Every structure is written in structure tokens, then in C-alpha cells.
Amino acid sequence: MRALRLPVGRTGAASHVARTVPGAAFGRDAIAMRAGPIGPVPAGWALRCVLLAGLGVGLTVSTAKALDGGQGAGLRPVDAPAGWADLCKRSPSLCSHHNRALGRVRLGAATMQQLVDVNQDVNHTIRYVTDQAFLGREEYWSLPIDGTGDCEDFALEKRRRLMALGWPRAALLMTVVLAFNGEWHAVLTVDTDQGPLILDNMTDQVLPPEKTGHRFHSSQSREHPNRWVAWSAREFVARAPAPPTPAGTAGQD
Predict the structure, then answer these.
(1) pTM of the entire structure?
(2) Given this structure, which CATH class describes domain 61-235?
(3) Tens digits of per-residue pLDDT, 185-201?
């Protein structure tokens, strides 16, 4: 059984993907990519995703529905992506337990600028190459190798850089989405006191989930990095939060 492939609009073996999502912006001027829910995933695609990584949960739950706490927005456990499980075997330190009390960063001008800078820098310095093209493997999660990587590697590198700046591990969650282009994709969710924000190699902008045009499928739990849950805004906004932690002052957990 092969691992889940998380493509990002690939048109060739190697293509740098740091595109700006049309019509998207951060804050009040942000415009959702789609006015209505995305249609059902074609049967072949859904079956392929289920077979490849067991990620058949919640594929028809729209981002908007999850964000407003509708049916299906509960914290249901799901299997971690096979690539994540393999990464944890190879590099346990990348998957070590985090302290939830150090999650949820207080967002201000300085911390927002750090997110923007890290997102843009990784998008423009890492060359997008598929695992198959570079390593001859269908799926291999890792930090970028020789300055190359695909979507999950971009997200892992952003996570690493933010942690080096003092951001708590518990606030930086690997996340699987069905992208606005209809393909499986990985992004980094950042848990802030103003709600989750998404760092994505498909755009240089830092956006709230509902402005990305993606359908959010699953992410690491805030409770433990090796527990994955079906995406729900309740994981971020409906539960009593830990006191926000200023980034850069908490140290590593």
C-alpha cells in the first residue's frame, strides 16, 4: 500500500510553487476562493485517497461548515498520514510530545510579520520537486533535502524556522487539505489568539482557513503531535484556551 501523495498543482517533475491565490488577502479584504461548497470528491479520487492513507473522513464537509461548528465538526480521531508516521520513525525528535500549555500564540504586528517572512522565504528559497522525481519514492516526508521538497516538506521547514524563533511546537500543526485545485495538499496551521492562520506554499499570503479556498480534512491535535483529528474549528476556538504565549519568549517545549 503506497502512502498518500499530497500534490500541489504539479505540471512537471520540478516546479517552484509559490503562487498567490487569486483574490485572496489577509484581514477584512480577504475574499473566499469559492462562494459555495465544493462539489463531492469524484468516486475514484475518494477511493484512491482512502486506499492510500485511510484519509476518507469528512471529505464532503466544507471549510465553512467546519468553521461554524456544524455537523461533522467534532474532534474525531483519524489515522495520521503514512508519510508522517514514517517521518516519526526516522526522526523522532520532529514528532516529540509538545506542551499544550505553550500553544496559542498572541498575534501582534511583530508575530504576524514573522509568519509572513517565514512563509515567503521558504516559498522562494525551496525548489518544489516531487518525492517521486527526486527520491524515486511515492511519499517521503522530511525537511527539505538539498534545497528541494514538496508541500509537506515546505510546511515542516516553516515549522522548524518558527520554532527556532521561539514559537511553541504546540501552536504549529501539520494539516491535510483538499486544495482549491482539487488535489491533496499539506499546509501548516498556526494556532493564535485571533484564530488559526495557514502557511501554504501555494501562496505568499498568510490566511485564515476560510479564505484559502481549501477544504480542511485533518490536522495534528493540539493535545499531542502524533494524534491526528478530523479538522474542526472547535479544536481552536470553542474550547477554553490556554493563556496566549508571546512568540519568542516561551522557549522550546
Answers:
(1) 0.67
(2) alpha beta
(3) 999 999 999 999 999 99
